[in-house]
Amino acid sequence: MTTGVFPDAADAPAPTEEEALAALEGLLASLSAQGGQAAAAAREDFQGLLADLAGALTGAAAGAAHDDALREGRFVLNECIVILRHNPGHDAVDLFCDIGLPDPHGVERAYRVLLEWNLRRFHPGLWFGVHPDSGRLVATLSLPMALAARQMVALATLEAVTRLVLQLREGRELPLVSPG
Fold this sequence. Notes:
Number of strands: 5
Structural class: alpha+beta
Oligomer: single chain
Helix content: 40-55%
Strand order of the largest sheet: 1-2-3-5-4
Shape: elongated
Order of helices and strands: HHHEEEHEEHH
Number of helices: 6
Strand content: 15-25%
Distance between the termini: 87 Å
């Protein structure tokens, strides 16, 4: 008896448990392979972005700054240290920009200012925090890889964030240790 949209499906015998399990395992293996290929492509895209940015920011000639940029995703722009990391879970580039070390006598005030900036979104798209190992204040944002892969967007974002960090350093809201 034929019923439904798929007449052959109603007439076909149900697969055995072993056949269903084998089909499911084959599907999972195929999905896993596709996921691995997508992850590899995303890593390659990120490495390509780092190479483009390293060339634009440090010059085409190989040197320590260029090597750091490629190996660690670490750049110096506008007197700011910037680190880029690929976030495969969100297919995004996470940007971290060093603001500076809080003054030992003003750590609580510095944390309060950062918390207020985050809560009130004084700088939309940016989040502020503290590096867990060094205690340095950082500005961070996440840029979708589809946007970050465009060199002009990535460069403009880096420029905007580092210029803002310079303004924050020069302002009086954050108690920072003077560099030297």
